Each structure stands twice: as C-alpha cells, then as structure tokens.
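Subject: for your reference before the review

Hello V.,

The reviewers asked for a structural picture of the protein, and I figured it would be easier to keep everything in one thread rather than splitting it across files. Below is the amino acid sequence we used in the manuscript, unchanged from the supplementary table.
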Amino acid sequence: MAAADVWSKIKIQQGDITKLAADAIVNAANSRLAGGGGVDGAIHRAAGIEQLQAACRKLGGCETGDAKITPGFNLPAQHIIHTVGPVFGGGQRGEAELLASCYRRSLEVAAENHLKTIAFPAISTGVYGYPFEAATEIALRTTAEFLVEHELIEQVTFVFFGRVDFESASAIIERLSPARDNS
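And here is what came back from the structure prediction:
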C-alpha cells in the first residue's frame, strides 16, 4: 500500500475506549498485567475484573514494548491486546524505541490473529510520564509505517478520553499526514 494511502486507515476520536466496538482494543498495561489505574483499570472494570485477571494470569506478565492478547469478555471489542509502555525517564533510556515497539507489537498481534480493526489509547502518557505530543507522534508514525506493509488491518483508531488530548492529536495527525480527509 502506498504510504499516503495508509493515513486513510488511521482515525482519531474523543471518547471512552471501553465503549468501542472493534476487533481489539489495546490496554496500556503494567508488566504484571494485573490491572491498575487509568485506562488499564477502566478496561479491567468494563471487561469484568475476575475474568480478565484470570486470563491475564495465564499469560505470565508482559515485557515493556511487547504485547499479548486476551478475549474482550464483557467489552464490545472481541479482544484486548495488552502492551506495556515505557516509564519516561528523560528520553535517554530507549523510551522512544520501546514505545514504538508497543504499537508495532500490538499491530503484529492483531495481524497474527487476523483482526481487521484495532483501537489504541495514548500509551505511556499518563502516570508513566511520556510527553503527550512526542508519544502521539511516535504512535502515528509507527502505525503508518506498519500499515504500508500489512494490508490486513483495515482501520486503526486512536481514542483520546479528554478534549485537550484529542485536539492536540488532531493537530499532530494533520501535520503528519499528506492531504488528509477527516470526514
């Protein structure tokens, strides 16, 4: 697929990722896959804490930059792809590469499982402290690069809970994507 064409597969929206009907939503997880705060806690609550925790325990944790999959249980999404983002420590410890790996590995897991639609939250930008604009640019660029080589995935949605983040992400995608139609 042509590089310019992949941007038509990337959407951004404001809202609650746990309400999105997709083949998979991505969880910004901790390495124990044990549930926590922010989007991780919201996904666990919406999916069903006991069911999701039991499925996560069977996976034996997840390394930073990797991704693993579970059923979506009570979510409208069929699956949850859990990825562990890096804690931002100033940008000198490979954080950008690890964050890009989160998106790439999540997309690889989706493709390996023949999933066509996937939705991401803003990984590592909450308590892990990654600067929002830099993280969003990494997310969008990594996704676009992946979609050039992998046509199975038909749509990637980035879901931002807050209006400020959504507006910032809108400006970033406009800057990165050539001649984008956002209708």
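For the response letter, the relevant points are probably these. The first strand starts at residue 10 and ends at 14. The chain is about 40% helix and 15% strand.

Happy to draft the paragraph if you're swamped.

O.
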